[in-house]
Design a protein that fits this description.
Radius of gyration: 21 Å
Strand content: under 5%
Number of strands: 0
Distance between the termini: 56 Å
Structural class: mainly alpha
Length: 215
């Protein structure tokens, strides 16, 4: 049996933390891009498009992320598309993130007073110009705090990628616990790593929310 010291455990978990951070950033940035596109489609096109985007949102919000990861990894393989655990995890988390971000941002757009839309239309601005010059700058200020706050959920969601074999912080902790026979110590360290990663983001989101409300 290999003897693991506390330093060995912390060092190996720190190495795995890089992949948790990388996967979180890919999911968050990719989800933001997809969510922004879906928001534009939901606001600007016809009823059928809005219904399609709404169905997309309900599908990914109404099903467990764990199931989405399984479908991305094993489902694509059944269709003849062999993907790595990294690719499947990035794809599933990106789609999952986009479904939540589009709803967060839609709520912020809806919070912009209707008078602002009417004022923009009275200036003969096109729909795109109304969004770009009047609505989105105001909605963007409202969206910063909840968007940053949702990053915490994305980071914690990456732990589920361990079920398809992606070696991030949780998976590395499980492997080290099995090898060292020190599960309490190992997963205690895993919890501290997640806390150290998520707590500053939560504080920053609260700070941004306070600023947006003038506190």
């Amino acid at each position: 049996m290999v003897e693991f010291t506390l330093w060995d455990i912390v060092r190996n978990l720190a190495l795995a933390l890089r992949w948790t951070v990388a996967l979180s950033l890919i999911a968050f940035i990719g989800g933001g891009c997809v969510g922004g596109l879906l928001l534009t489609l939901r606001l600007g096109l016809g009823r059928r498009t809005r219904l399609a985007v709404g169905l997309y949102v309900q599908l990914f919000q109404g099903t467990p992320l764990l199931m989405q990861l399984f479908l991305a990894y094993f489902g694509l393989a059944l269709l003849g598309l062999e993907v790595s655990a990294w690719t499947a995890a990035a794809l599933a988390l990106t789609l999952y993130t986009s479904a939540y971000l589009v709803e967060i941002w839609r709520g912020c757009v809806d919070a912009v007073p209707r008078g602002q839309w009417e004022a923009a239309r009275s200036l003969a601005l096109s729909f795109g110009e109304q969004l770009r010059h009047v609505v989105l700058p105001q909605a963007g200020r409202l969206a910063i705090a909840p968007t940053v706050g949702f990053l915490v959920q994305v980071i914690k969601g990456t732990a589920l990628a361990s079920v398809i074999g992606f070696i991030e912080l949780t998976k590395a902790g499980s492997m080290i616990a099995n090898a060292s026979f020190k599960p309490f110590l190992v997963f205690g360290c895993v919890a501290l790593f997640y806390f150290a990663l998520c707590f500053p983001i939560s504080l920053f989101a609260q700070h941004l929310e306070g600023r947006s409300h003038g506190r």
